[in-house]
Design a protein that fits this description.
Layout lengths: L7 H5 L2 H5 L34 H10 L1 H21 L4 E9 L20 H12 L1 H10 L3 H12 L10 H8 E5 L5 E8 L2 H58 L5 H42 L7 H4 L2 H23 L5 H90 L7 E5 L12 H26 L6 H8 L3 E6 L18 H16 L1 H5 L2 E6 L6 H14 L4 E5 L7 H5 L7 H7 L3 H4 L1 E5 L2 E4 L8 H5 L2 H13 L2 E5 L8 H5 L5 E7 L5 H13 L4 E9 L1 H4 L16 E2 L13 E2 L2
Parallel strand pairs: 5-12, 6-10, 6-11, 7-9, 7-10, 11-12
Antiparallel strand pairs: 1-3, 1-4, 2-3, 8-9, 13-14
Length: about 750
């Protein structure tokens, strides 16, 4: 069967987009609805999936406009009451300049450094200005009538049993210290109901701050003088003690002239060092000669071979005599006989000379040995004298070090004493001069108009705060309200494309709300026409023969949708069968005003042929199979072989089969029937079912793997739903709504027609 001619309404429901091959889903009208969900996915992950738009948030506010208005009016009224009941307050400002460096009358170092070198120094001065000490000094200046005027505005607001007023706390709360940016100027602000008193108190804060800092420096100087005097006394006593100890040490160690003793000791050490060196050289020479003598004796050699013996004057003389005597003996022996007197005399002379020579050699050798022993003794004595002198010099140096340390300690402490005395004199002189580290730039003057309340600012805050609170309250209520009511809820949360929207309408029979007659409301007719067109847009919907209609909970209009959808398909010339499979609470027979004596239960339990229980032509081209009563075990009936065979046979006889099933959130009957069908349609009643419940049920349906064509929003309240579906009520398209065929000329087969 060919698709119906596309109308403006079908374009509005996405018909044109579907034909052009774009995956727009079955969104309804307004931008942001129906985009990007593709086919029948659950919780689509497509990046083009529907998201809340600014228009959605505006609609949330429109629905809850009374929350916004109420909160807005309450806040505005509260601000107005607060503003007009406040006592007018006047503010006066005095400005003080902080000196970067304290003026110096005398070129001496100050005891208390109050120079401003950094932001920390400036903040220190600001905190001094804020301190309790300054507040107490200002309060002390308020006496008599001024104090009464100061407390008067606060006495009016105080109840009889309230605690006594704390004037210091009042002064602190109404005073404000404001440093001016990038300067050393500080503003002192004070607020009070009496403008004259506000100016005076601001000036008092400035005066007391300047006076406090000046007096503080004087007081610190006087304290410093006392401390310096005490320390100078202690230091003087310490210097005296060190001087007495130094004198006692000199007397004890004979250090009257330490420098002279050091000079004498040094000269003595030099002489002894020279003597030790000389004695060592003499010892070495004597030792060498004596060792040569000893070596010659051991060899048996003639000692005259030693030059230092042969060179001795006596030995040399006697040796010459022996030589001369030998010559004379030889001469006489040649001329005379041995016993010749002259020869004998010459021999005797030779013998005597030889004896004298030997004696001289012996004497010389003894002298060499004696010289060696004397040199050895002299060297030992020289070394001992040097060691003694060195020890004496070391002791003198040790005494000198100790004496020098004591002398240095005395000198240091003496200088400290002199410094303390000088600093005490300077501090005593500078402490009597009062200097200021700040000056008053501008004195505070009484204000011309009240500083507070600020009417414009308060009402601006009230307007903005009331509006913000109202909007927040509206969104909070919307957050708590999790019922399905918008296309966003159906498509983005529940996860189904929106096929159509059916407005709420009154039942045709006041006696039987379940009775059914074709609706005459053009918008209702248009809704089912749209549902029909939406099903035919997709291949699955166009070829599906058996379609299940279900919902989350009872009362969502699934039976109403099943009946009207079946009539709509029948009106287009298709052979349609409506089966009431709600075996617990059947309603189809009442909608068509027929009996419910035989039906699905008989086919399932008794094997009755379907044609015997089908009620023919309850509407043109529409047959009805009722439930046949109520079943005690519906699940067993629906899982029977007879029910499955019945559906197979009925598929051959009818173009479309619509099955009305119980809600899936209550019982599982629909889950039994769905695998035997070609798809399902989900009915959601406007502002009734919870999002989580609908989402859970749809998720379970989609897990079965049977196509789910989408959801129908049923029972739209036109007073509320217009916020979410304002395009649905757009009067621009009023001329295109379908109307009952009975109201039109050219009626054909009793089907609805559209106005051109």
């Amino acid at each position: 069967m060919s698709s119906p001619k596309q109308s403006p309404e079908s374009s509005r429901y996405g018909v044109g987009a579907a034909r052009s091959g774009r995956s727009t889903g079955y969104g309804y009208g307004a931008p942001g609805y129906g985009g990007g969900y593709g086919d029948y996915g659950y919780g689509a992950s497509d990046p083009t999936a529907a998201q809340r738009t600014f228009q959605d948030y505006v609609l949330i506010l429109r629905e809850r406009i009374w929350y916004v208005a109420t909160a807005f009016l309450l806040v505005l009224a509260s601000v107005a009451i607060f503003t007009f009941t406040r006592t007018p307050m006047y503010q006066s400002v005095a400005t003080v300049e902080i000196f970067r460096r304290t003026p110096q009358v005398m070129n001496v170092q100050q005891v208390m450094d109050s120079d401003v070198r950094s932001a920390e120094d400036l903040n220190t001065q600001v905190n001094i200005l804020k301190s309790t000490t300054i507040i107490q000094r200002v309060f002390a200046r308020l006496k008599g009538e001024e104090l009464a005027r100061f407390l008067a505005p606060y006495e009016k607001k105080r109840s009889a049993d309230a605690k006594p007023l704390d004037a210091l706390e009042i002064l602190e709360l109404n005073r404000n210290v404001v440093p001016q940016r990038l300067s050393l100027i500080i503003g002192i602000e004070y607020k009070h109901a009496d403008k004259e008193l506000a100016a005076k108190i601001a000036n008092l804060f400035a005066d007391e701050y300047i006076s406090y800092t000046a007096h503080t420096r004087v007081d610190e100087s006087l304290k410093a003088v006392e401390e310096l005097e005490s320390r100078a006394t202690e230091q003087r006593k310490k210097v005296d003690d060190i001087a007495r100890a130094l004198q006692a040490y000199r007397e004890k160690n004979n250090l009257v002239s330490l420098d002279q003793r050091k000079d004498i000791s040094t000269e003595t050490l030099k002489a002894l060092n020279l003597k030790v060196s000389q004695s060592a050289a003499d010892l070495q020479d004597a030792e060498t000669r004596w060792k040569q003598v000893m070596a010659a004796r051991q060899r048996g050699a003639d000692l005259l071979t030693l030059s230092f013996i042969a060179g001795d004057a006596a030995v040399s003389r006697l040796q010459q005599q022996v030589t001369d005597a030998n010559i004379q003996v030889k001469q006489l022996s040649q001329r005379y006989r041995a016993k010749y007197p002259k020869t004998v005399e010459a021999n005797n002379t030779l013998t005597e000379a030889q004896q004298q020579l030997e004696h001289a050699i012996t004497t010389t050798t003894a002298q060499i040995e004696a010289s060696y022993q004397a040199a050895l003794q002299n060297h030992a004595q020289a070394r001992a004298a040097l060691a003694t002198q060195e020890m004496s010099s070391l002791n003198l140096d040790r005494f000198g070090v100790e004496y020098t340390n004591m002398e240095r300690d005395f000198s240091v402490n003496e200088k400290i004493l002199e410094s303390l005395l000088a600093r005490m004199r300077e501090t005593s002189m500078s402490g009597t001069v009062e200097t200021q580290n700040a000056r008053l730039v501008d004195r505070a003057v009484p204000g011309r108009k009240p500083f507070s309340p600020k009417y414009a600012l308060n009402f601006a805050i009230g307007l903005a705060g009331g509006l913000a609170l109202g909007v927040a309250l509206a969104f909070f209520v919307a957050y708590l309200d999790d019922r399905v009511k918008s296309a966003y809820d159906i498509e983005a949360v529940v996860g189904l494309p929106l096929l159509s929207i059916v407005p709420r309408f009154k039942p045709t029979s006041s006696n039987d709300p379940e009775s059914f007659e074709a609706p005459k409301d053009p918008e209702v007719i248009e809704a089912f026409s749209t549902l029909y067109s939406s099903l035919r847009l997709k291949d699955e919907g166009r070829t599906a023969k058996c379609i299940v209609i279900t919902s989350t909970v009872p009362g969502e209009g699934k039976s109403l949708i099943a009946r009207n959808l079946a009539i709509c398909f029948a009106s287009h010339g298709e052979r349609v069968l409506l089966i009431d499979c709600d075996l617990r609470r059947p309603t189809a027979h009442r909608g068509f005003k027929v009996d419910n004596l035989a039906g699905v239960i008989d086919v399932c339990t008794k094997g009755t042929p379907p044609e015997e229980v089908i009620q023919k032509n309850v509407r043109p081209n529409l047959d009805l199979m009722t439930s046949g009563g109520r079943s005690e075990n519906p699940a067993q009936n629906l899982t029977s072989r007879n029910f499955e065979v019945m559906l197979v046979e009925l598929r051959k006889r009818y173009d479309r089969i619509f099955i009305d099933t119980p809600p899936v959130g209550i019982v599982s009957d629909a889950f039994i029937i769905l695998p035997l069908s070609d798809g399902s349609i989900y009915s959601i009643f406007f502002n009734k079912v919870r999002r989580k419940a609908a989402q859970y049920c749809v998720h379970r349906l989609l897990e079965i793997g049977v196509p789910h064509f989408g959801a129908v929003l049923n029972g739209l309240d036109r007073n509320i739903g217009g916020y979410y579906y304002h395009h649905y009520y757009d009067k621009t398209y009023a001329g295109y709504y379908v109307t009952p065929a009975s109201d039109q000329k050219g009626e054909q087969n009793g089907t609805p027609t559209a106005k051109n």
